[in-house]
């Protein structure tokens, strides 16, 4: 189910299907800057998540970890993105053996550019975390699938993600 509504102030809307994904440059867990364009030529799953080590985010990122072999068969890379700092993402990745890049949108520019700002994280008012969101990009980095949840407790449909990748 797709949702464009926002619970907070957002300066941009969720990019449309077939639109080129907004470029970004974010640090990974080793503070190496990675650009979206680094993934051009492959299908890419951008998996935005609200908070490292939270129960639902852990289940989601571990689900991608556990299905990484299947996703690779479809020619897809997975990139996890949260507003957590590189050090928190590094501990999260190490604790759960995450086998794909975790990027830090610590300035919250990318979640704003993708229109997926969640204004409050539970009782933390004005925290501005990422909504749980999935964008599947084709080899030219055009959005072929998007899913955004206003409820951070809802995980994406993993079978649907695999089906989209299979048909790209």
Number of helices: 5
Q: What is the annotated CATH architecture?
A: 3-Layer(aba) Sandwich
Largest sheet: 5 strands, mixed
Structural class: alpha/beta
Annotation, overall tally of beta strands: 9
Order of helices and strands: EEEHHEHEHEEEEH
| Shape type | globular
* Content of β-strand: 15-25%
- The multimeric state of the shown protein is single chain
* CATH superfamily descriptor: Glutaredoxin
Largest sheet, spatial ordering of strands: 5-4-3-8-9
Distance separating the two termini: 20 Å
Write the layout of secondary structure elements.
Layout (H helix, E strand, L loop, with lengths): L24 E3 L5 E3 L7 E6 L6 H12 L1 H6 L2 E7 L3 H11 L5 E3 L4 H5 L3 E2 L10 E2 L1 E6 L5 E7 L8 H10 L1
Parallel strand pairs: 3-4, 4-5
Antiparallel strand pairs: 1-2, 3-8, 6-7, 8-9
Defining key terms:
Glutaredoxin; two-stranded antiparallel sheet; 168 residues; alpha/beta; five-stranded mixed beta sheet
Could you characterize the architecture of this molecule?
By secondary structure, the chain is of the alpha/beta class. The protein has a single domain (39-167), classed as 3-Layer(aba) Sandwich (Glutaredoxin), CATH 3.40.30.10. It is 26% helix and 23% strand. It is built from five helices and nine strands, in the order E-E-E-H-H-E-H-E-H-E-E-E-E-H.
Short account of what is shown:
With 168 residues, the protein is of the alpha/beta class. The protein has helices spanning 55-66, 68-73, 86-96, 109-113, 158-167, and strands at 25-27, 33-35, 43-48, 76-82, 102-104, 117-118, 129-130, 132-137, 143-149.
């Amino acid at each position: 189910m797709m949702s464009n509504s926002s619970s907070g102030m957002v300066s941009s809307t969720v990019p449309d299907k077939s639109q080129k994904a907004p470029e970004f440059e974010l640090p990974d867990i080793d503070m190496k800057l990675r650009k979206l364009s680094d993934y051009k030529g492959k299908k890419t799953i951008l998996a935005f998540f609200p908070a490292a080590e939270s129960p639902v985010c852990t289940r989601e990122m571990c689900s991608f970890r556990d299905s990484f072999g299947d996703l690779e068969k479809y020619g897809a890379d997975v990139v996890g993105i949260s507003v957590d700092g590189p050090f928190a993402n590094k501990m999260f990745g190490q604790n759960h053996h995450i086998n794909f890049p975790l990027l830090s949108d610590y300035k919250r520019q990318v979640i704003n550019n993708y229109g997926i700002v969640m204004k409050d994280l539970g009782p933390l008012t004005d925290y501005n975390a990422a909504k749980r969101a999935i964008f599947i990009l084709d080899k030219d980095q055009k959005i072929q699938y998007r899913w955004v949840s206003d409820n951070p407790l809802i995980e994406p449909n993993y079978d649907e993600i695999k089906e989209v990748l299979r048909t790209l």
